[in-house]
Amino acid sequence: MNARRTTHRDRDEEGRAHNARPRDRLGRPLPRDAAGVTPPGPGDDVVLSAAESLALAQDLLDTGWPFRAHEILEATWKQTSGDERGVWKGLAQLAVGVTHAERGNPSGARRLIERGRDAITAGSDAAPDGVDVDGLRTWADESLHALLDVDGPLVLPTPHLGRMGS
Length: 166
What we know:
Helices cover 46% and strands 2% of the residues. By secondary structure, it is mainly α. It is built from 5 helices and 2 strands; from the N terminus they run ββααααα. The longest helix has 20 residues, at 84-103. α2 runs antiparallel to α3 (84-103) and α3 (84-103) runs antiparallel to α4. It folds into 2 domains: 7-38, no CATH class; 50-146, TTHA0068-like (Hyaluronidase domain-like, Orthogonal Bundle). A two-stranded antiparallel ribbon has the order 1-2. The protein starts with 9 loop residues before the first strand and ends in a 20-residue tail after the last helix. The radius of gyration is 17 Å and the shape is globular. This is DUF309 domain-containing protein. Residues 1-44 are annotated as: Disordered.
Protein backbone atom coordinates (compact mmCIF):
# COMPACT_ATOMS: atom_id res chain seq x y z
CA MET A 1 0.00 0.00 0.00
CA ASN A 2 1.37 3.39 -1.00
CA ALA A 3 1.28 6.18 1.52
CA ARG A 4 -0.39 9.23 0.07
CA ARG A 5 1.74 12.35 0.35
CA THR A 6 -0.19 15.40 1.36
CA THR A 7 1.05 18.95 1.14
CA HIS A 8 -0.40 22.18 2.34
CA ARG A 9 -1.34 24.53 -0.49
CA ASP A 10 -2.24 28.11 0.08
CA ARG A 11 -5.79 28.84 -1.01
CA ASP A 12 -7.82 32.00 -1.55
CA GLU A 13 -11.30 32.63 -0.17
CA GLU A 14 -12.91 30.68 -3.05
CA GLY A 15 -10.65 27.69 -2.42
CA ARG A 16 -8.43 28.19 -5.49
CA ALA A 17 -4.86 27.05 -4.93
CA HIS A 18 -2.15 29.69 -4.73
CA ASN A 19 1.55 29.23 -4.31
CA ALA A 20 2.93 31.64 -1.73
CA ARG A 21 6.51 30.45 -2.13
CA PRO A 22 9.03 33.19 -2.81
CA ARG A 23 10.00 33.58 -6.46
CA ASP A 24 12.98 34.85 -8.39
CA ARG A 25 12.84 37.58 -11.07
CA LEU A 26 11.90 35.01 -13.72
CA GLY A 27 9.04 33.57 -11.66
CA ARG A 28 10.82 30.39 -10.57
CA PRO A 29 9.78 29.16 -7.11
CA LEU A 30 12.44 29.31 -4.42
CA PRO A 31 12.63 27.38 -1.14
CA ARG A 32 10.04 28.62 1.36
CA ASP A 33 12.73 30.11 3.60
CA ALA A 34 14.53 31.95 0.77
CA ALA A 35 14.32 35.67 0.20
CA GLY A 36 12.43 36.13 -3.05
CA VAL A 37 11.98 39.29 -5.05
CA THR A 38 8.98 41.56 -4.97
CA PRO A 39 7.96 42.24 -8.56
CA PRO A 40 7.11 45.79 -9.51
CA GLY A 41 3.59 46.82 -10.34
CA PRO A 42 0.16 46.06 -8.92
CA GLY A 43 -1.09 42.68 -7.70
CA ASP A 44 -2.32 39.92 -9.98
CA ASP A 45 -5.96 40.80 -9.44
CA VAL A 46 -5.62 44.31 -10.84
CA VAL A 47 -8.08 45.43 -13.52
CA LEU A 48 -6.39 47.62 -16.15
CA SER A 49 -7.55 49.19 -19.36
CA ALA A 50 -5.97 47.89 -22.56
CA ALA A 51 -3.69 50.94 -22.77
CA GLU A 52 -2.66 50.63 -19.11
CA SER A 53 -1.94 46.92 -19.47
CA LEU A 54 0.16 47.44 -22.60
CA ALA A 55 2.10 50.32 -21.01
CA LEU A 56 2.79 48.44 -17.77
CA ALA A 57 3.74 45.22 -19.56
CA GLN A 58 6.08 47.16 -21.87
CA ASP A 59 7.72 48.87 -18.90
CA LEU A 60 8.20 45.49 -17.22
CA LEU A 61 9.72 44.00 -20.38
CA ASP A 62 11.99 47.02 -20.78
CA THR A 63 13.26 46.71 -17.21
CA GLY A 64 13.94 42.96 -17.22
CA TRP A 65 10.74 41.55 -15.72
CA PRO A 66 9.30 39.40 -18.55
CA PHE A 67 7.53 36.97 -16.21
CA ARG A 68 5.78 39.85 -14.43
CA ALA A 69 4.84 41.31 -17.83
CA HIS A 70 3.33 37.92 -18.68
CA GLU A 71 1.26 38.00 -15.47
CA ILE A 72 -0.11 41.47 -16.27
CA LEU A 73 -0.99 40.47 -19.84
CA GLU A 74 -2.52 37.20 -18.62
CA ALA A 75 -4.71 39.08 -16.12
CA THR A 76 -6.00 41.29 -18.96
CA TRP A 77 -6.50 38.25 -21.21
CA LYS A 78 -8.59 36.53 -18.54
CA GLN A 79 -10.74 39.65 -18.06
CA THR A 80 -11.36 40.07 -21.80
CA SER A 81 -13.97 38.44 -24.00
CA GLY A 82 -14.62 38.12 -27.69
CA ASP A 83 -12.07 38.04 -30.47
CA GLU A 84 -9.70 40.37 -28.60
CA ARG A 85 -9.15 37.67 -25.95
CA GLY A 86 -6.93 35.62 -28.27
CA VAL A 87 -4.67 38.62 -28.91
CA TRP A 88 -4.14 39.14 -25.17
CA LYS A 89 -3.38 35.44 -24.78
CA GLY A 90 -0.84 35.73 -27.60
CA LEU A 91 0.80 38.77 -25.98
CA ALA A 92 1.08 36.87 -22.68
CA GLN A 93 2.61 33.91 -24.53
CA LEU A 94 5.23 36.15 -26.15
CA ALA A 95 6.23 37.53 -22.73
CA VAL A 96 6.48 34.10 -21.14
CA GLY A 97 8.46 32.96 -24.19
CA VAL A 98 11.04 35.63 -23.31
CA THR A 99 11.01 34.26 -19.76
CA HIS A 100 11.71 30.71 -20.97
CA ALA A 101 14.60 31.92 -23.13
CA GLU A 102 16.17 33.64 -20.12
CA ARG A 103 15.57 30.57 -17.95
CA GLY A 104 17.56 28.47 -20.41
CA ASN A 105 14.62 26.61 -21.94
CA PRO A 106 14.93 27.38 -25.66
CA SER A 107 12.45 24.71 -26.78
CA GLY A 108 9.79 26.11 -24.41
CA ALA A 109 10.63 29.62 -25.58
CA ARG A 110 10.23 28.63 -29.23
CA ARG A 111 6.93 26.88 -28.57
CA LEU A 112 5.44 29.84 -26.69
CA ILE A 113 6.74 32.50 -29.07
CA GLU A 114 5.30 30.50 -31.99
CA ARG A 115 1.91 30.19 -30.28
CA GLY A 116 1.94 33.88 -29.35
CA ARG A 117 2.84 34.95 -32.89
CA ASP A 118 0.11 32.76 -34.34
CA ALA A 119 -2.49 34.04 -31.85
CA ILE A 120 -1.81 37.72 -32.50
CA THR A 121 -1.73 37.07 -36.25
CA ALA A 122 -5.06 35.22 -36.16
CA GLY A 123 -6.64 37.98 -34.08
CA SER A 124 -5.01 40.94 -35.78
CA ASP A 125 -8.38 42.44 -36.78
CA ALA A 126 -9.45 42.41 -33.11
CA ALA A 127 -6.15 43.67 -31.68
CA PRO A 128 -6.54 46.49 -29.15
CA ASP A 129 -5.59 49.95 -30.40
CA GLY A 130 -1.86 50.43 -30.28
CA VAL A 131 -0.79 46.77 -30.52
CA ASP A 132 1.91 46.48 -33.17
CA VAL A 133 0.90 43.16 -34.70
CA ASP A 134 3.31 43.47 -37.65
CA GLY A 135 6.22 44.49 -35.44
CA LEU A 136 5.53 41.67 -33.00
CA ARG A 137 5.32 39.14 -35.83
CA THR A 138 8.72 40.32 -37.07
CA TRP A 139 10.16 40.20 -33.54
CA ALA A 140 8.78 36.67 -33.06
CA ASP A 141 10.24 35.41 -36.35
CA GLU A 142 13.66 36.91 -35.53
CA SER A 143 13.54 35.47 -32.01
CA LEU A 144 12.58 32.03 -33.28
CA HIS A 145 15.57 32.15 -35.63
CA ALA A 146 17.89 33.25 -32.78
CA LEU A 147 16.65 30.33 -30.64
CA LEU A 148 17.39 27.64 -33.25
CA ASP A 149 20.88 26.66 -32.14
CA VAL A 150 20.77 27.79 -28.52
CA ASP A 151 21.43 25.39 -25.67
CA GLY A 152 21.07 27.52 -22.56
CA PRO A 153 19.91 30.94 -21.46
CA LEU A 154 19.46 33.62 -24.10
CA VAL A 155 18.44 37.23 -23.54
CA LEU A 156 16.25 38.13 -26.51
CA PRO A 157 15.78 41.68 -27.74
CA THR A 158 12.82 43.26 -25.98
CA PRO A 159 9.55 42.97 -27.91
CA HIS A 160 7.73 46.26 -28.46
CA LEU A 161 4.04 45.66 -27.83
CA GLY A 162 2.80 48.96 -29.20
CA ARG A 163 3.44 51.17 -32.17
CA MET A 164 5.62 54.17 -31.49
CA GLY A 165 3.43 57.15 -30.63
CA SER A 166 0.44 54.97 -29.73
